[in-house]
Fold:
Amino acid sequence: MKMDTVVTQPAIEADRICLRPLRKSDEGLIDVYAGDLRVAEMTTNIPHPLPPGATEAFVARAMQDVREEHVWALDGSARSQAEVLGLISLRQLDRDQSEIGYWVAPAFWNAGYASEAVQALVTANPLGNQAIFAAVFQSNPASARVLTNAGFAYLGDAEAYCVARQATLPTWTYSRKLD
Structure:
């Protein structure tokens, strides 16, 4: 029998946003934003169009005590922004490593929210990782800049399947060692 560890997911404060665990009331904004083709095309796993019930199932998985992926909302409500500006996640890998993923709703692009969220999550290191990996589509250089600005080092080129585009696309892979 395998014993899973329950990880308490902390809220992480940043300058303009709070990274907080998802709650059921986030479903509406996540559904609208994730249903935007511009968001789906820059992720590996968001289909387009978004099937009915997909967001509810995603939020339910994110709220479980035992989960493979830890998801935080980028909450800007303390600064009169939306309660959900985007999402950021860590998926636990082996050997004290995680893979980070993130997206920001198009209405908030080019405002530095992704950079702030990635830096806050790396600094907090809530899973106690020794390294965090990331991959971004080569058609998304803005996301690559977010990673390099947060101290991630380029490792090389690879490929990943994009559900929304129904195609395998070239990616850039990055890593950040943590102390």
